[in-house]
Prior knowledge:
Shape: globular
Order of helices and strands: EEHEHEHEHHEHHEHEHEEEHHEHEEH
CATH class: Alpha Beta
Largest sheet: 12 strands, mixed
Oligomer: single chain
Radius of gyration: 20 Å
CATH superfamily: Aldolase class I
Strand content: 15-25%
Number of strands: 14
CATH topology: TIM Barrel
Number of domains: 1
Helix content: 25-40%
Amino acid sequence: MAKSCPEHGCFDVYMWPDAAQYEWFCGYTFSSxxxxxxMKTVAGCPHDCGLCPSHARRITLPEIEVTWRCNLACPVCxxxxxxxxxxxxxxxxxxxxxxxxxxDGPCFPLQITGGEPTIRHxxxxxxxxxxxxxxxxxxLNTNGLIIGEDIKYLRALKNAGLTNxxxxxxxxxxxxxxxxxxxxxxxxxxRAIENCRKEKIPVILSVTIVEGxxxxxxxxxxxxxxxxxxxxxxxxxxxxxxxxxxELEKRMHLSVGDVARLISDQTExxxxxxxxxxxxxxxxxxxxxxxxxxxxxxxxxxxxxxKEEDYRRNxxxxxxxGAVFMDIVAxxxxxxxxxxxxxxxxxxxMDAWTMxxxxxRECNLAVTLSDGSSIPFCVYHLTDNTGKRLYPHGxxxxxxxxx
Length: 403
C-alpha cells in the first residue's frame, strides 16, 4: 500500500504475501447492514467515531473495558500508555451495556476486557449486570493468572453468568511467555485451562504472534487445541500490531496471508492457506477463518468442502467473527449435535502504518466507552510511534449521551 504524509513524505507498507489470494479476499464482499449512528460526521473518519453515519456495518461483538489496571507489564501490550484512568463505576458499566442493547439489539454477545478484569473484586457483580441487561453470552478476556490460581473465584464468575474465557496464550514454550509477557507464566496458563475444564467453561485461546518469537509455534498450538477440545473451543491468532507498548526490536507486519502460510507449512498441508476464508461480518481483509471438523478419525477444514454460493446463502450476519463457520456447521445438523470441531480465526488488526479507512468503516468489533460512544477496535487503539493515543482510555475527554 502506497501512503503519503505532508510531514513525513511517501512510503510503502507491506500488505500480503500473495497477490492472487489478496485480490480474492478483497473481492469477497457481503452486503452490509448498517448500525444506527450515535455521532454526527464533522471532522471525518477516524475522528467522529461513536459510531458516525459513515459506518457501514453492525457490531457483532461489542466490548466494554472494566479497568485499565493490570497484574502484568507485557512488552507487547497494546493497552499501555502513560495515563491509567480510574475504573468505571458499576453505574457507568450499566449505562454502557444499556447503550449496547439499545443500539445493537437484545440478546447480544459481549466481551468484558481491560486491563485485566479479574483484578476487580466486583467482577461477579459486573457479569450479573451484563446478564440482566440482556447479554446472551458473556466472554471474559483475561491473562489467566488469577483464574489459574483460584478456582473458587472462577466458579463465582461462572455462577454470576460467565459463559466463556478468552485466554491469552502465546505458545507452548515457557520462554515465549517470558519474552512476550515479561515473565514465565506458562504453568499458570495451563492451570487456568485445567480449572476451566473442571468448571466446564469453554476456553478460546488468544495468541499474539510476533515474528522471531513464536510464529513457528502455530502448528503445535493447533495440535494442543485439538488434543484438548473438551476445554478449548476456539483459537484466535492475532499478529502483533504497533500500538501502546511494543518493546521488541523486530516489528515485521504479519498479514492474514502470512499466518495462513505459516500454518500450512507447520501442519504439513493438513490445513492449507486456501482453507482460510474471509469473514463476511466485516471487511474481507480483517479476518481469515476456517473450521476444523472431525472426520474419518482426523480433522478436515470445513471450508474445503464449502462452495462460495453456499457460504453466501448460509452466512449469518449476526455471528461473531470467530463463530461464522461454526454456526454454519451447527445449522447443517439441526436434528443432532454436530461432530467436534475447532474454529480458527486470524485477526489482522491495523496500526498507524497499515490503517485503511475503508476497513475501519466496516469494522464489526467496537469498544463501548463510559460516555456511551462505540469506537471501532483498531481506531480506539490507534497510537503514533511514541504511543500517544487518538482516543484516550475510557474516552474521558468527550461526553456523549448514552441512549
